[in-house]
Design brief:
extended, 428 residues, 3-stranded antiparallel sheet, hpI Integrase, Chain A, alpha+beta
C-alpha cells in the first residue's frame, strides 16, 4: 500500500483541503482527510508541512498526517484479518475510513438475508475481488457458474413453494424438502444435488464466520453433501496407442485435438493446465508448471510420446481451442478408432431413480478422460499412489482410489500380479 498527500487547490492563497491518494492491491482512490493548510506552508517534495516559524504548529500537523496514514494502513489490515484475507473494494474501504478517521456512524443498512449475502459473494466473485482461501486466486469462471445456478434454484424454490429462505430457515427440514425438490421436480443427478448442497454449506459457513448467522443446523451429519461414484471411463494403454496411430494427416482439426489430448494422457494434468503449456516450461526432460485450480507446483517427466508430439510441431505444442469444442472434436476423432466402439454400460441416479444406459466407448470420451487415464494406467503399472497423487493433486489416497477407474477384472489381475511378485521374491 502507498499513501501520498496532495492539496486540493495548490495555487490557493487561503487554507485548502488535503486528500490522500491511496493505492493498494491494484486499487486506487482519493480520500479527503479532515485537515487543511495554506499552500504557502506546504512542502510539495515531502508532502507535508514546512518546518518554519511562520507555521509554528508544523510538528503537530505532520504528526497528525502520520497518524492518519497509520490509521489507513490499520483499517486495511483489520479488514483483511476479519475477512479471510479478502481485499475491500474502494467503496467499502472509504466507508471504513469514514468510521475510523472522521468518526462517522455507519448508515443503517437492511439486515443481510441468506440470499442477499449469497448474491454479494457472487458479485465479488464476478468482479474478481473474491479470493479462494486455499489457492489465493480469484474464483474461477466454472465455480462462479455453479454459484449462479445454485442461487437460481434456491430463488425459484422460494417462489414456487412460498417458503422463505434465510439463515434461520436452513435446517434439517429445509434440507429434506429442498433435496426432494431438486430430485423429483428438477430431476437432477445425485452428484449435481451434492454440489448445490456443498455451496449452500459454504455460504452458511462464511456467514457464520462473519457473525451474520447463528444457526448451525447445516453442520449436522444429516445435512450431508450427497455423492455417488461416477462411471466415467478411462482409456487403457492399447486404446491410447491406437489413438496415436490413427492417421489424421488429412484432417488437421482433429489431428491437433488428438495430439493435445495425448499430452494430457501422459502428463495427468487437467485440461485447463495441459491446454496452455508452453515450450519454456519444459526443461531437461521435465515439465514444470503450476496448476490453475490448486495453485500447486508440479514437475512431470516428459514421456517419449510427448517428445514425439513436440518434435512434430517443431518444438512447440499443439494449439488449444475451447474445452467445449475440444470435447466435440474428440468424440469425432475417437469414433474412427475401432477399439473404442465397444459397448459400455453407465449407471447413475437421476430424479431419484437408478438408471443405466449403454454407449459406445468413444461417446463418453472428454478432455478430462486424459487425466483419468493417466492416473488409472500408472496405478495399474505399479507406480506408487503417492507419486501419482503428487502429479494429479489428490490430497488423500481415499479420494485418489475413488477417482481412478478399475473394473473388477482389473482388480483381480492386479492382485494376481502382486501375488506372483511376492512368490518370486520368496523364491530368491
Amino acid at each position: 500500500m502507498t499513501i501520498a498527500y496532495y492539496l486540493t487547490r495548490p495555487e490557493a492563497e487561503t487554507p485548502t483541503s488535503i486528500y490522500a491518494r491511496i493505492c493498494y492491491s491494484g486499487n486506487k482512490f482519493k480520500y479527503y482527510i479532515p485537515e487543511k493548510i495554506n499552500p504557502k506552508f506546504w512542502n510539495t517534495r515531502t508532502r507535508q508541512a514546512k518546518q518554519t516559524d511562520k507555521f509554528r504548529e508544523h510538528s503537530e500537523f505532520n504528526q497528525r498526517l502520520k497518524d492518519i496514514a497509520s490509521d489507513i494502513g490499520s483499517t486495511l489490515l483489520n479488514y483483511k484479518n476479519n475477512n479471510g484475507g479478502e481485499i475491500p473494494n474502494p467503496e467499502t474501504f472509504r466507508e471504513l475510513l469514514d468510521r475510523t478517521i472522521k468518526k462517522k456512524e455507519p448508515e443503517k443498512k437492511e439486515a443481510k438475508t441468506f440470499l442477499s449475502f449469497f448474491q454479494e459473494i457472487i458479485n465479488q466473485s464476478r468482479a474478481g475481488v473474491r479470493i479462494h482461501p486455499k489457492t489465493g486466486k480469484p474464483i474461477s469462471p466454472n465455480t462462479l457458474k455453479t454459484y449462479v445456478t445454485t442461487i437460481k434454484h434456491l430463488t425459484e424454490y422460494q417462489t414456487k413453494n412460498k417458503r422463505k429462505i434465510d439463515f434461520d430457515k436452513i435446517d434439517l427440514d429445509f434440507y429434506v424438502d429442498y433435496t426432494e425438490h431438486l430430485t423429483k421436480k428438477l430431476k437432477l443427478s445425485t452428484n449435481t444435488i451434492g454440489k448445490h448442497i456443498q455451496i449452500i454449506k459454504l455460504v452458511m459457513n462464511e456467514a457464520t464466520e462473519r457473525g451474520l448467522n447463528t444457526n448451525l443446523s447445516f453442520k449436522s451429519k444429516r445435512f450431508v453433501t450427497v455423492r455417488e461414484n461416477s462411471d466415467s471411463v478411462y482409456l487403457n494403454e492399447k486404446e491410447i496407442n491406437e489413438i496415436e496411430k490413427l492417421d489424421l494427416s488429412q484432417n488437421s482439426r482433429l489431428e491437433t485435438v488428438r495430439d493435445l489430448f495425448l499430452i494430457g494422457c501422459y502428463t495427468g494434468l487437467r485440461y485447463s493446465d495441459y491446454s496452455i503449456l508452453k515450450p519454456e516450461q519444459i526443461r531437461d526432460g521435465y515439465i514444470e508448471t503450476k496448476q490453475i485450480k490448486t495453485g500447486d507446483a508440479v514437475v512431470i517427466p516428459v514421456h517419449p510420446a510427448v517428445n514425439r508430439i513436440i518434435s512434430k510441431y517443431n518444438g512447440e505444442l499443439p494449439r488449444s481451442i475451447s474445452n467445449q469444442k475440444t470435447n466435440q472434436f474428440l468424440k469425432e476423432m475417437a469414433k474412427k478408432v475401432e477399439v473404442l466402439k465397444t459397448p459400455v454400460s453407465v449407471s447413475f441416479t437421476k430424479g431419484g431413480l437408478k438408471l443405466s444406459e449403454t454407449f459406445e466407448k468413444w461417446e463418453l470420451i472428454t478432455s478430462h478422460t486424459a487425466r483419468r487415464s493417466f492416473a488409472t494406467n500408472e496405478y495399474l503399472a505399479g507406480t506408487p499412489s503417492l507419486t501419482i497423487m503428487a502429479i494429479t493433486g489428490h490430497k488423500t489416497e481415499k479420494a485418489f482410489l475413488r477417482y481412478i477407474k478399475l473394473t473388477p477384472n482389473e482388480h483381480a489381475i492386479l492382485l494376481k500380479q502382486h501375488w506372483e511378485k511376492r512368490n518370486n521374491l520368496r523364491a530368491v
